[in-house]
Amino acid sequence: MALQLITPPTAEPIDLAEAKAHSRVDIPDDDMLIGALISAARDFAENLTGKQLVTARWKLVLDCFPGGERPEAPYRQAFSLPGNAILLSKFPVIQVVSIQYLDLQGTIQTVDPTTYVVDYSTEPVRITPVFGQIWPIPVPQIGSVWVTFDAGYAAPLSANGNDITVQGWAPLAVGSVVRLSNSGGALPKPLQPKTDYFVQSVVSPGIYTLAATPGGAAIALQDAGSGTSYLGAVPDGIKAWLKIRLSTIYENREEVAIMTRGKIDVLPYVDRLLDGFRNPEF
Questions:
Q1: Fewer CB within 10 Å, N side or C side of the chain?
Q2: Rounded to two decimals, what is the model's pTM?
């Protein structure tokens, strides 16, 4: 199977201001370099863990729908990876946008979403036909099936008046519970991180007002905030690793280091910060 990045993230998990503060840089001369190093560190972390830090759209390309045993017996293992399950190795998956295939006439068809079920809680995410259904038959050639999905811990947001605009997140409904985060600045006042808010209204797709309580009045935003604000949050352990790795690369920009005195040991705890986020084998 092959994963293709369709829409890359529109923001980084660490804002330039936060990265510079951690690296103790207070001049603008290296802003472009530090920005590039943030992207490089994020790419490395995502490849190492299989996690998507900031929302992006992906396409999984398959040669056919998976076959094999279907878990339809009333009593079986409490958790399984059925033979007919499509497995999405990027995590966390926000939404499956579509499942498409080439039929025997070479026409692109979209699978009816009511005929399959997605378990977003597992890693990998599992997609199987609903009970009593089977996958359709595609043309027997390579690359004839593809699954488009959005994944990410956090999505960039902006504020305009009392509205927030979210990029790349699944549609939210009135009453949905959300949490916000920020890097390099502050959320729009009076919003606070690690606090539950409720969607008060859907102004248009991706644009919402928030309330402090279910069914409450819309929160009046006092400013647009600073730094980079997000719906959701990148785990603190991953952000800590990113900042440590970024500072190390910034201070040591060459391929090799020639030491004239002393000894430098690699600190093993740094990469261990990512251990809890690595994809399990499946």
A1: C
A2: 0.86
CA 11 to chain centre: 12
Return d(Cα 151, Cα 96) in angstroms, integer.
9
User: Contact 150/189 with Cβ under 8 angstroms?
Assistant: no
100 Cα distance to chain centroid: 22
Report helix, strand or coil for 26.
coil
Q: What percent of the chain has pLDDT over 70?
A: 86
State the Cα–Cα distance between residues 91 and 51, nearest whole angstrom: 5
Closest CA to 245 of 16, 45, 35: 45
- Distance between CA atoms of 236 and 253, rounded to whole angstroms? 26
The packing angle between helices 31-49 and 236-251, to 10°, is 130
pLDDT, the chain, mean = 89
Contact predicate 240/279, CB 8 Å: no
CA distance 219 to 185: 20
Domain ranges of the chain: 56-151
